[in-house]
Design brief:
The protein has about 325 residues and is α/β, with parallel strands linked by helices. The protein has a single domain, classed as Acetylglutamate kinase-like (Carbamate kinase, 3-Layer(aba) Sandwich). The protein is built from twelve helices and 14 strands. The chain has an eight-stranded mixed sheet, with helices on both faces. A two-stranded antiparallel sheet has the order 3-4. It has a two-stranded antiparallel sheet with strand order 6-7. A hairpin with a 5-residue loop joins strand 9 and strand 10. Helix 5 packs across helix 6. The longest helix is centred in the first third of the chain and has 25 residues. The termini are far apart. The model has no long low-confidence stretch (mean pLDDT about 85).
């Protein structure tokens, strides 16, 4: 009887193992589609401030790297900035969804993002190996910006992205982790919306996908009706929703960034709930997905100079 019982347990465990193997095999087409290509991940919201969620996201990004994708992380850190401002007695003021950034607040932005958030993310990724390099948009003048408006102070609008440093780091198998601070023509620092920076970098570097982690399940037709979650939509629909001015203030920069990236040739844009554990993997490697995916219209043409992977790479063998 004891031998029979052990045999039954063994079969159950074997069935479980076979089920896991089958699940891995089912991810093969999705992995093949993305191998060697750049995926830009905008990281923020509760997924950044919750320790357990941050561990999940960092583990997911390491896994993406190990199976052949080239992740690039762009992050802000609004909660940290506000917390520092409050402790230092500086005003926490927003106008039209942007943080009013006086020279004093700009110093706090750099202190919070470059001195705390960015090193912490890099350190957490590097627990798995020497994988990540911390940057901001001013490093190598990756992101150049101009002032948005005098009323907002040192809030920047992205003017140009130089991908030279990023391409070199990716070629050397590093994960760039970029804080959303840019540099102006005068050498001044600018506070740039992390969503907008992620879209601009994805467009400039020829990313295959750009992903925005947020605190909601995705884009809703009607935010108050949770049954109206949009699982898939076209670029033209995103443009229409933006023009109709029906989006929440927090969703506007994400949709603007999606439009910029897709218009430049990026194949997919995803808006995900970062508070759902391993949402990155579920969205990228399952049929169902868990958020909103925005794709180009059939009539959209990819720019002639757009490339998703370097010549001679494994990706070029799979996709060329």
């Amino acid at each position: 009887m004891e031998l029979q019982k052990q045999s039954n347990i063994s079969r159950a465990e074997q069935a479980l193992a076979l089920g896991s193997a089958q699940l891995l095999i089912e991810t093969l087409p999705w992995i093949k589609e993305s191998t060697g290509k750049v995926t830009v991940v905008k990281y923020g919201g509760a997924a950044m401030t919750d320790k357990a969620l941050r561990e999940d996201v960092m583990s997911d990004i390491v896994l993406l790297k190990l199976i052949g994708l080239n992740p690039v992380i762009v992050h802000g850190g609004g909660n940290e900035i506000s917390s520092y401002c409050t402790r230092l007695g500086l005003p926490v003021e927003f106008k039209d969804g942007y943080r009013v950034t006086t020279p004093e607040v700009m110093e706090v932005v750099k202190m919070a993002l470059l001195g705390k958030v960015n090193p912490e993310l890099v350190a957490q990724l590097n627990e798995h190996g020497h994988l990540a390099v911390g940057l901001n948009g001013a490093d190598g003048h990756i992101v150049k910006a101009r002032q948005h408006s005098p009323e907002l102070g040192q809030v920047g609008v992205v003017e140009k992205v130089d991908t030279t440093l990023l391409v070199d780091l990716i070629a050397a198998d590093y994960i760039p982790v970029i804080a959303s601070v840019a540099v102006g023509a005068d050498g001044a620092s600018y506070n740039v919306n992390a969503d907008i920076m992620a879209g601009a970098i994805a467009a400039a570097i020829g990313a295959h996908k750009v992903i925005f982690l947020t605190d909601v399940d995705g884009l809703y037709q009607d935010f108050d009706n949770k049954d109206t979650l949009i699982n898939r939509m076209h670029l033209s629909d995103a443009r229409r929703m933006l023009a109709e001015d029906t989006l929440s203030k927090g969703m506007i920069p994400k949709i603007q960034a999606c439009i910029q990236a897709l218009s430049a040739g990026v194949a997919r844009a995803h808006i995900l709930n970062g508070t759902l554990s391993h949402s990155l993997l579920l969205e990228l490697f399952t049929d169902e997905g868990v958020g909103t995916m925005i794709i180009p219209d059939e009539k959209d043409e990819v720019p002639e100079d757009f490339t998703e992977y370097p010549a001679g790479s494994l990706a070029s063998k799979l996709h060329g």
